[in-house]
Amino acid sequence: MARQATYDRDKVLKSAMDLFWAKGFHATSLKDLENALDMRPGSIYAAFGSKEGLYAEALRLYSGRTQAGLAEVMAEGGSKLKGIADYIRLLGGQRRAEVPSRACMLVKTILEMPDDDPNLRGLAEDLIDQMEAALTEVLRQAQTEGELPASTDPVRLAGQIQTQLIGLRAYAQRIHAEGRVAQVAEDIAQGIEALSVKAA
Length: 200
Fold this sequence. Notes:
The chain has 200 residues and is mainly α. Helix content is 66%, strand content 0%. α3 packs across α4 and α4 packs parallel to α7.
């Protein structure tokens, strides 16, 4: 009979995500993981296979929460473009004390890992693509509902919005940017709302 896990997997993954998000993959030591997860190295490896395996699970958790955040805002109904704008406002309103890092964990992973890394770098790229695909779908819905002109390319626009989001999160990471992040987010949000045909 298989031995049952004696740890809370969700809690462990959340702790690992926070630690990796703050410190990155290479700067996080096994001792850091032991302390944060309250697990012995053998237990960590038994549960996740390797440090890389744990990091991959933490990345998936981060991405899932990010997409869930967008979906939650969109579920409130109303204008699709306003939903995207409100999501950006939420990101701009995050305070430094609320999250381990205000920069995107996926982007931080891409910057940390070499271009030819097929595992964590490739996973981060795939997860960013999924977020962009989610934005594209929302924009397609906005187009179907007559909020965006028929001439709009939802894929291209989603890429532009994704770029703005990445830039916002990188800007927010700066030590002295705290007071300006919300205004930058508001400027981006208003730009998106201004695309609405219905608002014209």
